[in-house]
Amino acid sequence: METAIRATRRAARAEEWALVLAAAGIPHRVAPDGAGFSLLVPADEAPRAQAALAAYDEEARSEPAAASPPGASPRVAWTVGGAVGALLLAFFIVTGPPAAGSRWFAQGAGAAGRIVDGEPWRAVTALTLHVDAVHVAGNAVATAVLLAAVVRELGPGCGLWLVLLAGAAGNLLGALARDPRHVAVGVSTATFGAIGILAALRLVGAPRRARGKRWLVLAASLLLLAMLGASPDADVLAHGLGLLCGGALGLTAGVALRRPLGPRAQWTLAALAALTVAGAWRLALG
Question: In CATH, what number is assigned to the domain containing residue 43?
Answer without folding.
Answer: 3.30.70
